[in-house]
Specification:
This protein has two domains: about 180 residues, Activator of Hsp90 ATPase Aha1, N-terminal domain (Bactericidal permeability-increasing protein, domain 1, Super Roll); about 130 residues, START domain (Alpha-D-Glucose-1,6-Bisphosphate, Chain A, domain 4), CATH 3.30.530. Helices cover about 25% and strands about 35% of the residues. It contains six helices and 14 strands. Strand 2 and strand 3 form a beta hairpin. Helix 1 packs across helix 2, helix 2 packs antiparallel against helix 3 and helix 4 crosses helix 5. Belongs to the AHA1 family. This is Activator of Hsp90 ATPase AHSA1-like N-terminal domain-containing protein. It comes from Patella caerulea (Rayed Mediterranean limpet). InterPro entries: Aha1, AHSA1-like_N, ASHA1/2-like_C, START-like_dom_sf.
C-alpha cells in the first residue's frame, strides 16, 4: 500500500492540495457561451463610429449564434469560440440631419482568424448617394473599430476563463506556469494596438516566392454588358459561385468569394470593357496578391474575354488555371446560358 509522506510514486494525490486532476493531466472544460454573449453585447451595442464627416452607431445585436469554451489539458489552456453575429446600425453625415439605417454581419468570428482578419459586412436600407456615404463610414471606418472590440473580447475571454481552470501543483511557490493557444496573455492587447494604429499605406515584407503569369481567352455567347454584370453584380456572382459573394464594384472596393477563400480589391473598372483587381487565395503566403486583368471585346455574335493574371505562386499555377475554367467560365455559361448562341 502506498504510504503518505514517503514519496511513493503511487500516492499521486500528494501532488495536489485537493487531490483532484493531478498535474492537470485530465481534460477540463468550462462553457463560456453565456458569458461571451453578454460580453459581445457590452462591447458592440452603443459603439460609435466617427470619421469627421459623419457618425454611425450600433443600435442592437439581432443575432449571436455559436459557442465558446475554455479547456485545460496538461496545464495548457485552449480556447474555442465560433460565432455568427448580426445587428443593426444607424448613422448620418454632418451636413444633414437625416438618419439612415442598415445592418451589419460578422459571419465567422473564430479562433482560426486574427481579429484584423475578421470580415465585417455592412448594408444600408436606403440606396441614395447620401445613404451610401453613411454606409461607407460604417464600413471603412467602423471595420477596424469593431475588430478592435473583438480583440478585446478575446483578451477578456482568456483572462476571465484562465482563473481556476489550471489547478496548482506541487511546485516552487505553489504555482504552475501555464500556456494557452495564443502563446502569451499580451497577444490580444497587441492585436488591438495593431488594428487601431495600422496605416493604410504600411507594407509587410513577406517571403520571396516564385510566380507565374496566366494568359487565356474565353468566348461567351452574350453581350459585353451582360458578361460585365455577371462579373461585378453581387447577386449574379453569388448565383454562379453557389455562395454568398461580397462585391463592391468600384475603385478601391473589396470583394470576397467562396466563403472568403478568394479576396481582393478592385484597382480599375471600365464598364463593359475592363476590370483590374488585386486577387489572392487564402492559402497563399500572407500579404501576397496577384494582379488580374480582364478585358471584354464584344463581337457580332459573341464576347471575347481575355484574362491575364500576374503573380500566381508557382505551386498553385495549374490549380488556378483549372479554377478559372471550372469554377468561373463554365459556371457562368451554365448559370446564365452564355454558352449558347443568343444573338
Amino acid at each position: 500500500m502506498a504510504k503518505w509522506g514517503e514519496g511513493d510514486p503511487r500516492w499521486i494525490v500528494e501532488e495536489r492540495p485537493d487531490a483532484t486532476n493531478v498535474n492537470n493531466w485530465h481534460w477540463v472544460e468550462k462553457n463560456a457561451s453565456t458569458w461571451s454573449k453578454d460580453k459581445l453585447k457590452e462591447l458592440l451595442v452603443g459603439l460609435k463610429v466617427k470619421d469627421g464627416k459623419g457618425e454611425c452607431e450600433i443600435n442592437e445585436l439581432s443575432k449571436i449564434e455559436g459557442e465558446a469554451s475554455a479547456n485545460n489539458r496538461k496545464a495548457k489552456l485552449i480556447f474555442f469560440y465560433e460565432w455568427e453575429i448580426s445587428g443593426k446600425w444607424s448613422g448620418f453625415i454632418d451636413e444633414t440631419e437625416k438618419t439612415y439605417k442598415g445592418e451589419f454581419e460578422i459571419p465567422n468570428l473564430s479562433e482560426e482568424n486574427d481579429p484584423d482578419e475578421i470580415e465585417i459586412r455592412v448594408t444600408c436600407d436606403d440606396t441614395s448617394d447620401e445613404a451610401y456615404k453613411v454606409k461607407e463610414i460604417m464600413r471603412k471606418t467602423g471595420t477596424p473599430i469593431i475588430q478592435a472590440q473583438i480583440a478585446k473580447y478575446i483578451k477578456d475571454l482568456r483572462e476571465e476563463y484562465s482563473q481556476g481552470i489550471v489547478l496548482p501543483t506541487k511546485t516552487v511557490g505553489g504555482t504552475t506556469k501555464i500556456t494557452d493557444n495564443i502563446g502569451s496573455e499580451n497577444v490580444a492587447k497587441k492585436e488591438i494596438n495593431k488594428i487601431i494604429h495600422k496605416k493604410a499605406d504600411s507594407k509587410q515584407i513577406g517571403i520571396q516566392i516564385r510566380t507565374k503569369t496566366l494568359k487565356s481567352k474565353e468566348e461567351f455567347k452574350c453581350r459585353a454588358s451582360d458578361l460585365y454584370r455577371a462579373l461585378t453584380d453581387p447577386g449574379m456572382v453569388s448565383a454562379f459561385t453557389g455562395a454568398t459573394a461580397i462585391v463592391e464594384a468600384e475603385k478601391g472596393g473589396k470583394f470576397s468569394l467562396n466563403g472568403g477563400n478568394i479576396s481582393g480589391e478592385f484597382i480599375e473598372l471600365i464598364p463593359n470593357k475592363k476590370l483590374v483587381k488585386k486577387w489572392r487565395v487564402k492559402s497563399w503566403p500572407d500579404e501576397h496578391y496577384s494582379t488580374v486583368t480582364i478585358e471584354l471585346t464584344e463581337k457580332e455574335d459573341c464576347t471575347d474575354l481575355h484574362i491575364q493574371q500576374v503573380g500566381i505562386p508557382d505551386a498553385d499555377y495549374d490549380r488556378t488555371v483549372q479554377g478559372w475554367q471550372n469554377h468561373f467560365w463554365e459556371r457562368i455559361k451554365q448559370a446564365f446560358g452564355f454558352g449558347v448562341r443568343l444573338f
